[in-house]
Structure formats: structure tokens, C-alpha cells
């Protein structure tokens, strides 16, 4: 175990023998630091936080501090950072609010500089938060989604898998899977390049393109969109789009602009 002599490590913490804790880093409370984790100089891990194997927390990042929620009164809550995830300089991840609840970051996520993950958020695997992006409490982010720089996501919003939230976007309603948004949160296209890179078949890409055209270009409402998707989706990706729309949502999915010419 490599713990720098200037680091402050709580006796209640469980530190794997292969972990490395740098100068002036702080581990406060009953945190669990897994195998091959690295805490860079002045990194901070607090409370009931678990870093799974191979995580890296960079300088001045704070993981597992108490939530910024007036309902929080010191209850025991949790934070978990998945295997191989990286938390860059100045980023913050807060633990859950209610007793026993958690904030969860999946495997291989990248939280770039000064990004923020609010209490009770859930990030699936391979999510990227670009520098300065902000997630309010209870936000869900699907697998391989990207939230661009300085974008702000309202509480309880769902960001679908493989979606690309535009730079400086203001997201107040759910963002469907496989799409691209502009700064106003409007859905402007399906994420064609992202789907190709992710290995989606031609049938899946064609089906999703038709679905986005029907929902956004033609401007049908949510109930009509669900009915259309139930009748038209035959691929696995299409069925995941249907599941997203059919799920009850605290924020709703706006029927916003769609422009096939902008598809990327």
C-alpha cells in the first residue's frame, strides 16, 4: 500500500493493499478504496463511499461529500464509483439524501474537470460528463451517453443511452436514447455516428431513423409515439427506445424540433 506520509486516512477506511494515495489526499470516514485505485494529490473521498477497482480520483476532486439538499439531516447514505472510472480535477460527486440511498457512477465513466453529479444520480457504464457539466439530483444517464461542456440537467431528468447532449444545453425534460440535442434541449437529430461506432446494425439504424422522423418531424404526442413504437419497432435498439418512452417520467419527453438534415 502506497500512502504518502502527508495524506490523511481515517482508521475506519478500508484501503486495498494495491491502492495509491498521494500527497495531501484525504480519506474521511468508512470509505472503501479498491484494488489499484489512485488518489492523486489533494483528492478527497468522504463518507460511505466505495471506489471499485482501478478508479482514479484527481487533484481537488471531492467524492462522497454530503448532498446539497435541505432534506438531508445526517442520515447514512452512500456513493459508489464503478470499476475503472476516472474523476478529474475539481469534479464533485455527492452521496444520496435519504437514509440508505446511493449515488451511483457506473464502470469506465469519465467525469471531466469541474463536472458535478448531484445526490441520488445514477450513471450507467461508459458515460462521459464533459468539463463543467452539471447533473441535478436524481438524474439518470444511460449507457455511453455524453453530456457536453457546461450543460445543466434538471433534477429527475433521464438522459437516454448513446445520446449526445449539446454544449451549454439546458435540459429540463427527458432526452431520448440515440439522439443529439441543441443548447435549448431540442432534439435535432439521431446520433448516427455514435450508433455506427457502437456497432449498431444497418437495420437498427434505419429503424431508429424512421422512428425519430415519425416522432419529431411529424410532431406526434407521447401517447401516439408509444403506440407507433409498439407497432413499428422490431430490433433490440428499437425496443429500448420504446421502453424509454413508455416508462413513466417525472419530467416528460418534449416533442421537440427534429431536422433530418442535421443528423450526424
UniProtKB/TrEMBL annotation:
- What GO terms fall under cellular component here? membrane
Q: Name one GO molecular function term.
A: acyl-[acyl-carrier-protein]-UDP-N-acetylglucosamine O-acyltransferase activity
Q: Domain UDP N-acetylglucosamine O-acyltransferase C-terminal spans what residues? A: 174-252
The protein's Enzyme Commission number: 2.3.1.129
Family matches, as InterPro entries: Acetyltransf_C, Acetyltransf_C_sf, Hexapep, Lipid_A_LpxA, Trimer_LpxA-like_sf
Q: Name one GO biological process term.
A: lipid A biosynthetic process
Per its UniProt entry, what is the enzyme's top EC class, as one word?
transferase
Listed A to Z, the keywords are: Acyltransferase, Lipid A biosynthesis, Lipid biosynthesis, Lipid metabolism, Transferase
**Record protein name field:** Acyl-[acyl-carrier-protein]--UDP-N-acetylglucosamine O-acyltransferase
Q: Name the gene.
A: lpxA_1
Amino acid at each position: 500500500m502506497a500512502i504518502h506520509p502527508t495524506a490523511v486516512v481515517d482508521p475506519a477506511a478500508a484501503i486495498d493493499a494495491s491502492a495509491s494515495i498521494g500527497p495531501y489526499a484525504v480519506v474521511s470516514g468508512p470509505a472503501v478504496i479498491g484494488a489499484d485505485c489512485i488518489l492523486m494529490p489533494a483528492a478527497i473521498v468522504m463518507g460511505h463511499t466505495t471506489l471499485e477497482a482501478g478508479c482514479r480520483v484527481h487533484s481537488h476532486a471531492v467524492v462522497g461529500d454530503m448532498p446539497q439538499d435541505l432534506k438531508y439531516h445526517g442520515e447514512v447514505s452512500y456513493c459508489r464509483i464503478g470499476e475503472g472510472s476516472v474523476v478529474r480535477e475539481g469534479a464533485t460527486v455527492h452521496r444520496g439524501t435519504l437514509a440508505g440511498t446511493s449515488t451511483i457512477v457506473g464502470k469506465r465513466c469519465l467525469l471531466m474537470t469541474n463536472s458535478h453529479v448531484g445526490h441520488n444520480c445514477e450513471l450507467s457504464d461508459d458515460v462521459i460528463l464533459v468539463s463543467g457539466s452539471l447533473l441535478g439530483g436524481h438524474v439518470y444517464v444511460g449507457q455511453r451517453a455524453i453530456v457536453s461542456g457546461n450543460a445543466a440537467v434538471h433534477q429527475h431528468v433521464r438522459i437516454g443511452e448513446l445520446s449526445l447532449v449539446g454544449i451549454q444545453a439546458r435540459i429540463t425534460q427527458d432526452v431520448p436514447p440515440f439522439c443529439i440535442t441543441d443548447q435549448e434541449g431540442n432534439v435535432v437529430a439521431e446520433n448516427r455516428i455514435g450508433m455506427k461506432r457502437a456497432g449498431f446494425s444497418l437495420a437498427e439504424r434505419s429503424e431508429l431513423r424512421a422512428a425519430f422522423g415519425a416522432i419529431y418531424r411529424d410532431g406526434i404526442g407521447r401517447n401516439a409515439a408509444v403506440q407507433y413504437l409498439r407497432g413499428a419497432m422490431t430490433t433490440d435498439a428499437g425496443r429500448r427506445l420504446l421502453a424509454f418512452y413508455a416508462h413513466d417520467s417525472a419530467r416528460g419527453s418534449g416533442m421537440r424540433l427534429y431536422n433530418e438534415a442535421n443528423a450526424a
